[in-house]
Amino acid sequence: MKSLNYRFPHSRQDSGQMNLTRSQLGQAQQVTNVLNNRQNEQNIDRSPAPMVHGLHKLAVPSSQQSSANHSKKSSISKQQQPKQISFLNYLILKDKSQIAQDEEKENINEPVVQKNMFNFQFVIGIGGFGKVWKVEYKKNGQIYAMKEMSKALIIAKKSVNSVMNERNILSNLKHPFLVNIYYAFQDRENLFLVLDYMQGGDLRYHIGKMRRFTEDQTRFFMACIFLGLEYMHSKNSLHRDIKPENLVLDKHGRIHQLYWLGYVRITDLGIARNLRPENSQDTSGTPGYMAPEVMCRQNHSFAVDYFALGVIGYEFMLGKRPYTGRTRKDIRDQILAKQVQIKRSEIPDNWSLESADFINRLIQRKPANRLGFNGPHELRQHSWFKNFPWSKLMNKELKSPYIPNQNEDNFDARQISMEDEENNELIQQHSIMLRRNSIQSQFSGYEMDNFSEKQNTLFNNF
């Protein structure tokens, strides 16, 4: 075996291909010495003769055996003679290969969407982990809502599983009565969700202005919410936090190419969960809208969302919730004390008995007695929705009976501008933890680009 050939550059073209440092040349010389030493060792047969009954077996080489071995080695060397390359060329090829692999990794890890791709206009809401912005995507001028969540707050509130779960559930849901996700990405300090922008604001803002809604408005809103819940339940997902703050009005409609405000969409899947047989420990929610079985730590199913829907109907009709209290315990005690029902004398003028019956059957304390416990068809078939144009609602061909102001963004600027000092303190206390790779790894896989051509076609069909 010949030692490796080294070819040093003699022309400017060769020297431009690879400039080796002294350490690399030294490394090459060391490799050569090792190879030469191994070759010399192979030429010397230092192996002991085999042992037979404790005695060395005499190995007498014959001329025929030596000749045969020499012939065999010659044959092998002719068949398996490797193609020799200089060590410098070997280093060049190895270096190029490593560069290509590094570039490939960078392309894989490079985020599809980044924060600097958006123009941030103003804050439209405050969440448990940060703010919600109205943003413009620079690439095409499209307006979105961007949910910005502080990792420090998420760590402080031990909610990593919650935010990761929200992103995973959102990525599996696409529906015209949900606020849908387009992108998810992160940087060192924050997580970002890019969602449908709802110009109409949330129902909490509007009920604060209106105090109550009419029966037609309430039926329209509840029908929109029901279609969103029906779809979520078909995907085995529970929302578990249906309330006016999480119900927003969009700007959409296709009849005669007109675009209307007033269709309700469901948002904020922060505590949504996929249905499991054993979920008695999943007790998150908002007191006042939380179903009794959740509050009492019992296993629960899709009927929990229908209870919240009934509370919203009650609130829209009477301007208050059926169970109230300053604390969660107060509300729980009220639920356990009595079953609240809308009395005939309480029904407002111009409201029907069917509307009260529909709401009363949704706010039943026992899930088995609740409308929708046996399936969504129970809501569709109730007399309050007799002859209701479900298909036109699904296609957004109906004019909403409630039209918010179309010339402004319907948000409470005073509430949004309030500083959350407690959250700011938590961010400062826990921001140093974000330097740890072990903390950052908990958010691995958060990135998502959901705006493919297929999805674009789907959303245009809404």
UniProtKB/TrEMBL annotation:
InterPro entries, alphabetized: AGC-kinase_C, Kinase-like_dom_sf, Prot_kinase_dom, Protein_kinase_ATP_BS, Ser_Thr_kinase_AGC
Segments for region (Disordered): 1-26, 60-81
Enzyme Commission number(s) from the entry: 2.7.11.1
SUPFAM superfamilies: Protein kinase-like (PK-like)
DNA repair as UniProt keyword: no
Biased amino acid composition, Polar residues: 14-26
GO biological process entries: intracellular signal transduction
Binding site for ATP: 157
Gene Ontology molecular functions: ATP binding; protein serine/threonine kinase activity
Alphabetical keyword list: ATP-binding, Kinase, Nucleotide-binding, Serine/threonine-protein kinase, Transferase
Keyword Transferase annotated: yes
Identification of the protein by name: non-specific serine/threonine protein kinase
Native species: Paramecium tetraurelia
